[in-house]
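Dear Dr. K.,

Following up on our conversation at the group meeting, I've run the structure prediction for 3-dehydroquinate synthase from Pyrodictium delaneyi. I'm pasting the input sequence below exactly as I used it, so you can double-check it against your construct before we proceed with anything downstream. Let me know if the numbering doesn't match what you have in your notebook.
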Amino acid sequence: MNQVERSCWVIQDSHDVAIIVGPGARRQLGQLALEQGPYSAAVVVADAGAPRSMLRDLLASLQDAGIHVHFTELPGGEETKSLETVAWLWNWMARENIPRDALLVAYGGGAVSDTAGFAAATYMRGIDWATVPTTLLAMADAAVGGKTAVNLEAKNIVGVFHHPRIVIADVDLLETLPEEEYISGLAEIVKHAAIHGRSLLEWLRENSQKLLDRDPEVLTKAIKYSLDVKMDIVVKDYREKRGDRMILNLGHTVAHAIEKAMDYSMRHGYAVAIGLVVEGIAATLKLGTPREDIEEIRQLLSALGLPTAPPPGLDPQETLQAIMLDKKRRGDKILVPMLKEIGSPTLVAMKVDEALELLAEAWHIAAKSTQ
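The predicted structure tokens came back this morning:
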């Protein structure tokens, strides 16, 4: 019988966070709200494209707990992550007379969660919120960490740290997720495994077919492992002051540049997979990282159906200029997360020009390796 797994983490300057992963976990939202509250009301902000039957279970769970529910919907996708959407949510909550002791519940993918979380962080100077992600990408990564943000000229350029009190990752929601969207989420799990160490990477390789088959027990463990790796880093550097947390951006320097160049038409996990390979090759050039370590990561990504080479139509020099708006940039330098070896991440400070040259060279090598 499939088991639900639960953990609790204490976030610096914040509060305790209840995380529950497994089949049917959505039905425990009401009970968790009673434990984390009390709350006089719940505001459910749902992704318009998310599964309706599971949403009914969420609403029923809150109502069975005696919590009055307000409900609205947002379209999914990066277009939702805008200040206009947030302003609409603020005004809607004000019209609904939502009090400060309400719990906002974000139900959907990462875009809806990011946007609703930012609205929760700023409405009445901050109300508690919960997230019930409906994509693997959100379950394995975006659901925890407390980064809420919307896009302007660059991705996630305006936001605040505001961690959800409750995180529910119900793997039942992944049964009907489109194939490409599901595979996209596997990239963040691989990233966390590369940061954590070879044992988790080997477990993923051994269970790669079961992951592709969406086996509930393996999925539950993979998501739980992934969230534990991320939270172990987050609690040490919640507001990203010391630098530890930037390690979680492994692969994302290149990924965000690709996404921007393609006007966010590429799925995030696909861009991250390419970023892991390109930045991994850059680490072999800069740090002497064993090439076989990067090849091990590349092979796992490929086995999971993820791309490992940059899109042929993109010019690397032009694409990589996006790092000028990267949040890891400090003046004329940028901090790039790299692997010294699997399980040994580090932050490398480089002049922006040096980083551009290094990543462009690695880009060309990655592109040639698949020809």
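Two things stood out to me. The CA atoms of residues 205 and 300 lie 6 Å apart. The first helix runs from residue 29 to 36.

Best regards,
J.T.
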